Fold each of these.
Amino acid sequence: MSVDPITLEIVRGAVSSIILQMEGLVERTAMSPVIKEKMDYFVGIYDLKGRIVDAFLSTSGPKIVDPVIRVYPIEDMEPGDLYWYNDPHRSKGAIQHTGDMCFLSPVFHEEKPVGFAVSFGHFWDIGGSVAGSLSPKSSEIFHEGILVPPIRIMRNGELNREAYAVILNNSRFPEMLEGDTRALMAACRLAEDRLQELMDRYGQSQVLEAFDQIIERSIAEYRKFAREVIPEGEHHFFDYVDADPVDGEPRRVDVKFIHDGDRLVADLTGSGPQATGPVNFITSPGAFNLIMARHLSYMNPELPLNEGAVDFLDEVRTKPGTITYPIFPAPVGLRSHTVIRLMGCLGGIIAQSNGGRAPASSPVYVIYNLRTIGGGGKYLYFSEGIGSGQGARPHADGLNGIYFRDQRNYPVEFEEGEFPLRIERYAIRPDSAGPGYFRGGCGIIREVRIMVDCTLSTRMDNVRFPCFGIDGGMSGWPGRFTLNPGAPDEDDIPPASEGISVKSGDILRIETGGGGGWGDPFTRNPEDVQRDVLISDPFIYMI
């Protein structure tokens, strides 16, 4: 039974509206800064097969229902049930690091299961070797906090208080964990109610058929466009993660893309060995599909971000024991370093095979953490992610100071009101962009005066191997950390460090990297060069 075009668009719009309502609820009720201010969370609507109908997709999200239904068959689920997990290895990469706690509730209509509501968020602390549960020096996943296998945390609407207490007891900040948990659970319940209302109005069979059509059409659209963008043949690109933070050795990230007739295959088996430290990435097929879909949707904004974005390739080949498919108990907390290199490799493949029609590479965002124990044994923890320069585009300069994961930075007023620090400087970093006909985006300079004795940890990539340019464009400038710049005790801080002692009054300068350039820089419009050099307020010139 086919759904008429008008009803199809009504259902599509209604589901998108439900997503917006879920997001609004999470943002109003979550407690931790990383969710309520930085927006590091996800919500989605899935059909009964675990396919994405609508969601705001990150590289987590594809096949996120599968780990639950492998343990709890759908026929055993009941209204009011709600499931919880965060184990990256057990979920086969559906969740990519332990900090992302996933919640899932089955949706029932007329006593029949019809789909799933999903939410997850990055929790402030879930135990592990350090406050915040992420350290560049982690050497096994047990250092990265409690591992929750798929569990039924609610049965018929009743909370499993014993299991809940165990998880809360593993956090240094249980109040934040509980507040975020309640917010994400409530988002799932809201989606249940709204989907039931939608089916009451338009009929269960009509809505489910609309889900099928939305998904099948988007898969076909992605497959068609991918075949147009990358010509027949085998295409190859590789790059390197700067270093395993534990052993100091770089790790190769290798991508081959094979277009053979109607068949589309990605091969990552040439990637280097898994890292001892946490830069490993469990590359599920869905996650790699989505990395490629981001490139395709950039080139064709009409492509939807749903199941079509995670299921259009015929095969994604990985090799266990590599940095792109590590073996348990490998740590994965800094997997974004490898994700960004995969994105860059795909951009390189598209550029090589399509006349440079792809953006230059972008550096991974930069994070620093501050930790101490205050009066009464209370933990004090702060973590901040800072944007970097976007790679230049085939039609325009790269954007300045972009946080690639679609998240926000912390407002200065919020930081200074909540934590013992003061922002002394926040600016675009001059001359950090990769030169090109279109230059890369500039990185950011942020100077933070730390107002308490504590320890510092840092994470930064694209220092040893900066962002590459496309079609003659040049590399972006690498980032760096400096403690007390210009003072007699000035000190360069390694890009991936843990436990650096800092004193009250010290200043930490963070300089993030610039994006690669696109095209020959000697052909750049002289007026654009003049504007780059003479502009008095770089914050005005953001696009």
Note: Confidence is low (pLDDT under 50) at residues 536-543.
Amino acid sequence: MQVSIHEKAFNTLKNFESGLQELIQELQTAKATKKDIDKVNLVVSKLQSAKQHFNDK
């Protein structure tokens, strides 16, 4: 079965989100500043919006 481009985009975004979540955990462990962690969280937020868009297709 062939995966649609929307499914492929969704899965790619989902994998990227997992990597960013791991990065956030590493930043927290390394006692990074809240500002640094918030910047990554902003990317996660935008990513979730894009992921939702492709999941709805």
Note: The radius of gyration is 14 Å.
